[in-house]
Amino acid sequence: xxxxxxxxxxxxxxxxxxxxxxxxxxxxxxxxxxxxxxxxxxxxxxxxxxxxxxxxxxxxxxxxxxxxxxxxxxxxxxxxxxxxxxxxxxxxxxxxxxxxxxxxxxxxxxxxxxxxxxxxxxxxxxxxxxxxxxxxxxxxxxxxxxxxxxxxxxxxxxxxxxxxxxxxxxxxxxxxxxxxxxxxxxxxxxxxxxxxxxxxxxxxxxxxxxxxxxxxxxxxxxxxxxxxxxxxxxxxxxxxxx
Length: 242
Ligand SMILES: [Fe+2]
Ligand SMILES: [Fe+2]
Known about the structure:
46% of the residues lie in helices and 2% in strands. By secondary structure, the protein is mainly α.
């Protein structure tokens, strides 16, 4: 019996965007129409999308910064971590700054702190993942002792009358009483937006800190069988049909 032929180069690979990125946006996905077009020359995207830079076989953290993250997110993370490093913060704080919005880079925006914490949990100290998770709720609440005010950018993003939901309030209160509060609070302090074109620090500036505090799996991120390997694979192949 013959194996089905793997789609050849030259065949059109149709892409169905992830539901989470299109629901409610008005972007209509004509999946039934694509299913009707499916034939020998029209198949669905699986594997490397030629429109994206090819990832190495054993991807490491900085490969995602260079080859997958949106420019604005990569610049934001590198700049935040660079400021923390310039201020002489603990390396765990620098790493948390470097990773705090990692979910926005190439995965998902909604509840990005929680997704980001889960994504990195198998590879970092528990305190770093904790700080990444709780920076999200803590961003909504000022703390004068740290010189942290409610962000002006949030007034612009959400409108001055925006009220965070109960779970954000509850989690921020929980964080405030926690022994790692300062770590998460420092992440919010360095969580500053730079929409200008100032060049971001070279990712290599953080290679040593990553080497000391991020356990890069020998098989590469996505292929080590960790509980979050599938999330890294989704960033490598974001357009897979299934
Ligand atoms: Fe964030
Ligand atoms: Fe941020």
